[in-house]
Amino acid sequence: ERKAINFDLLTSKTIKSKRIGLSKNDIKDSFLENLFFHIGRVPKGATIMDYYQALAYTVRDRVFKEFVTTVKRISDEDLRVVAYLSAEYLPGPHLANNLLSLGITEQTAAAMAELGIDMEELILQEEEPGLGNGGLGRLASCYLDSMATIGIPSIAYGIRYEFGIFEQHIKNGLQEEYTDKWLQYGNPWEVVRSEIGYNIMFGGSTKHVTDSNGNFTVNWIPDSKLRGTAYDTPILGYKGYGSILRLWRAEAIDTFDFSAYNKGDYYKAVQEKILSENITKVLYPNDEQETGKELRLKQQYFFVSCSLQDLIRLHLLQGRILDTLHEKFAIQLNDTHPAIAVAELMRLLVDDYQIDWDKSWNITQRCFGYTNHTLLPEALEKWSIPLFRRVLPRHLEIIYEINHRFVQELKYQHGCSDEQLSRMALIDHSGEGSIRMAHLATVGSHKVNGVSALHSELLKKHVLYDFAQLWPDKFCNVTNGISPRRFIALSNPLLTGLITETIGSGWLTDLKELSKLENMAEDPTFQNKWMAIKQTNKASLSDHIKLETGISVDPSMMFDVHVKRIHEYKRQHLNVLNILHLYLQIKKGNNKDMIPMAFIFAGKAAPGYFMAKLIIKLITAVGDLINQDTEVNDKLKVIFLPDFSVKKAQHIYPAADLSEQISMAGKEASGTGNMKLSLNGALTIGTLDGANVEMMEEIGMDNFFLFGLNAEEVQHKKQGNYKPGDHYVHNLHLREVMDFLISGALSPENPKLFQPIYEQLLYDDPYMIMADFESYLISRAKVYEEWGNQSNWTKKSIINVARMGKFSSDRSIQDYSSLIWKIDSFQNRP
Ligand code: GL4
């Protein structure tokens, strides 16, 4: 029996000023204390990294105070909690964000200044955790920020990859991948919870046994076991509540296999440890592309099992019984990466806790919600049955059982045809057979959502058509959103200052308040301030570009920004075709009223994705040609900024004039970069794809440059006999750029270099670049016209920002809470 410590001690006088006080002097004292006693340095010997770490610990203490206060409240009031399961997170650097959330940026900078330290320099020391590929991982982090801000009791689970997304270097215009080193100087933001760990089993076989009382049980006899240990990063909402990011790291259960050691085979003894730790070594660097690798399946199962075992422990700790698990937790599956959770929860309930199947299934379905993030066929996860059997033999049996019961229900309760059955089954029998993870997630959840209005409709119309027919009420939409704290308050302090000075600071937690800016859109004084800020942000990015690439960009050029993963469906090459068109026009002397433009690209390509890597080479080759040519380089610049990350993104978005959102309609589930750029005052040129549709609805046709086929027209064209070559024949401009592509001018050392792009566009064109080219050019002509009137452009820029209220991740989280989780925020509680 332990006596509980009085929680009020946390706010006692000594602790308060020493560890959690927010005044300049408190912060200074804590910083020095951390520097001496935590880092073990005297100021003379301290490096800039030591200073950064001492400050990080200083801030972390204060974040922890909020976190433990929230946890206490959840526990005291026995609140319902969201468990967010995601294989990816991209939190971005923590320090500046936590300072903002605590509201102590100014006094901390002052405290550091008194010590002769430039806080900005410390902020730059931080290596961000690149634990995701792109939009999906960043969305998870925005949601965590919003849950903590609004006060939705939450815990986010994931994988502590030792190596996150690779570092991208550009050499001779080509992408090269280097290992990420985010942990090389340690990670002051996390706390290892060595006592919170779970055993995870793999492989082997199962034994079905009936005991003397006639009770039936299944034993899984694995052939390997390892342990997952929790690493916690506290997350603080903006002037709000605490949450936690709990990441699992794989470790060997026993550090040494002593029998091998005793025989003198030391290396064999260590081998098991190494193999176990491999599971969380590295993030798979593919966005929207399945690999089918055994290690990937193990990663998914590993983190899901750790997380579910943890939820069960937390639930039982509250003195509850498992029958009520779904009352305590809403578990959200971020895409199918954690979908194995459906089978794992069934295994835990049925095998480990001996709850009968029907009751377990009821609990399972009521716990889970599933968010689909892609319609791309190649990204819909499937696991081959032989592989699955090898890794998770017991789960295969459970999935067969779920499938069997589901098929029976379809047949006998719903009278489904054999064709429907084979379309809907969890098992695809073609070839060696495979498990359709999206079907498992859909059947095992009580709600399924897409991430934009269009995407949710297409999901019901195509990928999950039969399921939507069967259970129309199961399907809903939650349009993505972004954190206004990170993507404007932190990244664009000047614009944030102007907005707050004009309409007050309420907009940071209620983004709809931005609409108050509409009144100012035509005010010349306000417009001038707005333009001046954009100019400053552009000059700053221009300095950064010079530093990173050696290329000078005049900040008075229009900054045309295309930053996101490199993928054919996102059509960076459509943008390039236009750049070549402009180049050829200048070369012909048709450049009298041409607007000087800087085209800025950034984004990583999956290391094994040939076409995406070739597109990077194409961008850099076009850049090499243009940036050095004095006949064109005062009118055009083409920049590829290497190693796109959250940190880089924060620098780029505030400097953009034009945002390229030009995916083929029907392919981009939502997009979130579109929202980040618009919130920073860029105008969008885009297709009717993903959340662009809703953005245009909000912003208005007049303030948005629309072009291209819509999703229905794309579908229709694909079903007809689309001939991309016809566009080549009929459009002179297109013909010129296509011919130029293979003329050798872009790659004298290898004239055939871009032939694969040329041929694909001309003969196949799966992403309808040829079909949309003309419309793109027409829309761009409007861009140039509008840019010609700077006051008018600025007005539109202000209107764009004023109408972005809907796209706050706070709104998305409110939608999840009311439609799916049925959880009240702290704010709405008495
Ligand atoms: C993605 C979508 O491609 C992207 O449109 C969406 O915004 C994001 C978050 O919902 O999810 N799906 C996958 S897979 N990666 C993504 O970025």
Automatic annotation (TrEMBL):
Record-linked Gene3D superfamilies: Glycogen Phosphorylase B
Top-rank taxon: Bacteria
Catalyses which reaction(s): [(1->4)-alpha-D-glucosyl](n) + phosphate = [(1->4)-alpha-D-glucosyl](n-1) + alpha-D-glucose 1-phosphate
Molecular function (Gene Ontology), one example: pyridoxal phosphate binding
Membrane spanning stretches: none
Classification via PROSITE patterns: PHOSPHORYLASE
Keyword Transmembrane helix: no
Pfam families listed in its UniProt record: Phosphorylase
Any single biological process term in GO: glycogen catabolic process
Cofactor: pyridoxal 5'-phosphate
GO cellular component, one term: cytoplasm
Positions carrying N6-(pyridoxal phosphate)lysine: 676
EC number(s) stated in the UniProt entry for this protein: 2.4.1.1
Keyword set, alphabetical order: Carbohydrate metabolism, Glycogen metabolism, Glycosyltransferase, Phosphoprotein, Pyridoxal phosphate, Transferase
Record family assignment: Belongs to the glycogen phosphorylase family.
Function: Phosphorylase is an important allosteric enzyme in carbohydrate metabolism. Enzymes from different sources differ in their regulatory mechanisms and in their natural substrates. However, all known phosphorylases share catalytic and structural properties. Allosteric enzyme that catalyzes the rate-limiting step in glycogen catabolism, the phosphorolytic cleavage of glycogen to produce glucose-1-phosphate, and plays a central role in maintaining cellular and organismal glucose homeostasis.
Identification of the protein by name: Alpha-1,4 glucan phosphorylase
Source organism of the structure: Anditalea andensis
